[in-house]
């Protein structure tokens, strides 16, 4: 009765959904799962640094079915979708995608999905971790537009890494090589219906494959793994290291509905000038004119040794006074530095300001930094694509 458990036992209950690839991830050796959009998501298979090396050197397969799809259709679908975001979707062509923000009436960030336009009046939102689908349904109920908002049985995986294009060509033919960044292609793999987009959470060469028939999830997974064998493919969890190097944020961890786009470095560009109205426009125009008092910026620690970041929001200090909080710290093998994000007063938001942060190893000195930390012009994937 007093036996000490030496390992965690996972209980996969009915409250959270499993993806069509769930059993395949278990067979592949996934060791831990988290909860994201009410679904199980693989957290790691192996040491995160080893997973990172596979991502940056070869090719990797991710189960990201948790990117729940909200589909918007109907005669007024385009107007409705444009009202959800401060991006100007009148400039989004059929077949194109965009990284967008969904904003609240006070300018707060409700979600930051990838948006895909599949038809004249068919839009997909691939959600980050929040109930933004309910937000869209609530707005649809009272906006007076003729739209249908639903969550179809669509489940994406990501194929990411410098050799991902070789794997995708093996599966889908040469046409997949012509998909432009943030564009899509509808096709099938021997009858398995999919939508392919050249997007991903890694800033490496990569694709997302949206499965439209969940009964064929394991079949799709196995086909991708088989095609990837010559290229040393391996399943991994979404790489925190690589996304932070690339200046990619995680909704719910780095920012929430309490934060607006002008407070997050790099997201200001997603509030585009346009004549159309959208939720939060008045508030965002006011914030833009008045400025903000704080900002989420990059952080580089001075230490050249790996530092363990705290799992909670750790305080940050300047001249002995608490001035903000750190949202994440990771070790970048490529940069040989500890990097992360930190909320600071606007007067400390410029790169190079000295701050002190709390970690699991004590306190550490560092400096504010611009993001992305690595390859801001995405020249690495461009050069690899050009090399063919």
Structural class: alpha+beta
Q: State the domain count.
A: 3
- Tally of individual helices: 9
Any low-confidence stretches, pLDDT <50, length ≥5?
A: 1-6
Secondary-structure element order, as H and E? Answer: HEEHEEHEEEEEHEEHEEEHEHHEEEEEEH
Multimeric status of the protein:
single chain
Number of strands: 21
Kindly report the average pLDDT value.
95
Q: Which CATH architecture of the largest domain?
A: 2-Layer Sandwich
Beta-strand residue percentage:
25-35%
Shape designation: globular
Largest sheet: 6 strands, mixed
Overview of the molecule:
The chain starts with 21 loop residues before the first helix and ends with a helix. It has a 6-stranded mixed beta sheet. Strands 16-19-18-17-20-21 form a 6-stranded antiparallel barrel. It has a 5-stranded antiparallel beta sheet with strand order 5-8-9-4-10. It is built from 9 helices and 21 strands. It folds into 3 domains: 22-67 and 153-243, Probable tRNA modification gtpase trme, domain 1 (Gyrase A, domain 2); 69-150, Alpha-Beta Plaits (2-Layer Sandwich), CATH 3.30.70.1400; 246-369, Beta Barrel (Elongation Factor Tu (Ef-tu), domain 3), CATH 2.40.30.110. With 388 residues, it is α+β, with helices and mostly antiparallel strands.
What features would you highlight for this structure?
Alpha-Beta Plaits, about 20% helix, about 30% strand, 3 domains, Gyrase A, domain 2, globular, single chain, six-stranded antiparallel beta barrel, 21 strands, six-stranded mixed β-sheet, Elongation Factor Tu (Ef-tu), domain 3, 9 helices, about 400 residues, alpha+beta
């Amino acid at each position: 009765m007093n036996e000490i458990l030496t390992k965690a036992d996972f209980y996969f209950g009915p409250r959270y959904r499993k993806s069509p690839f769930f059993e395949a991830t278990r067979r592949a050796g996934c060791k831990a799962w988290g909860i994201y959009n009410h679904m199980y998501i693989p957290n790691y298979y192996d040491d995160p640094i080893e997973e990172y090396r596979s991502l940056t050197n070869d090719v990797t397969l991710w189960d990201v079915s948790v990117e729940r799809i909200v589909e918007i259709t109907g005669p007024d679908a385009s107007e409705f979708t444009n009202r959800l975001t401060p991006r100007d979707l009148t400039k989004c062509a059929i077949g194109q995608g965009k990284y967008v923000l969904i904003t609240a009436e006070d300018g707060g960030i409700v979600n930051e999905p990838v948006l895909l336009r599949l038809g004249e009046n068919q839009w997909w939102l691939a959600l980050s971790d929040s109930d933004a689908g309910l937000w869209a349904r609530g707005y649809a109920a009272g906006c007076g537009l003729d739209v249908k908002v639903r969550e179809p049985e669509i489940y994406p995986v990501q194929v990411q890494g410098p050799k991902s294009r070789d794997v995708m060509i093996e599966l889908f033919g040469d046409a997949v090589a012509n998909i432009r960044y943030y564009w899509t292609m509808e096709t099938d793999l021997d009858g398995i219906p999919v939508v392919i987009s050249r997007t991903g959470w890694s800033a490496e060469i990569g694709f997302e494959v949206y499965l439209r028939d969940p009964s064929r999830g394991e079949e799709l997974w196995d086909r991708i793994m088989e095609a990837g064998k010559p290229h040393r493919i391996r399943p991994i969890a979404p790489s925190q290291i690589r996304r932070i190097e690339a200046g990619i944020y995680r909704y719910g961890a780095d920012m929430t509905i309490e934060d607006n786009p002008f407070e997050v470095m790099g997201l200001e560009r997603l509030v585009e000038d346009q004549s159309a109205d959208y939720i939060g426009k008045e508030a965002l125009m006011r914030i833009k004119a008045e400025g903000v008092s704080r900002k989420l910026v990059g952080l580089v620690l001075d230490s050249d040794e790996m530092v363990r970041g705290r799992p909670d929001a750790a305080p940050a200090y300047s001249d002995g006074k608490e001035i903000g909080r750190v949202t994440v710290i990771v070790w970048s093998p490529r940069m040989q530095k500890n990097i992360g994000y930190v909320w600071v007063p606007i007067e400390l938001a410029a790169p190079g300001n000295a701050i002190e942060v709390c970690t699991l190893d004590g306190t550490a000195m560092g400096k504010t930094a611009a993001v992305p930390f690595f390859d801001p012009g995405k020249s690495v994937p461009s050069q690899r694509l050009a090399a063919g």
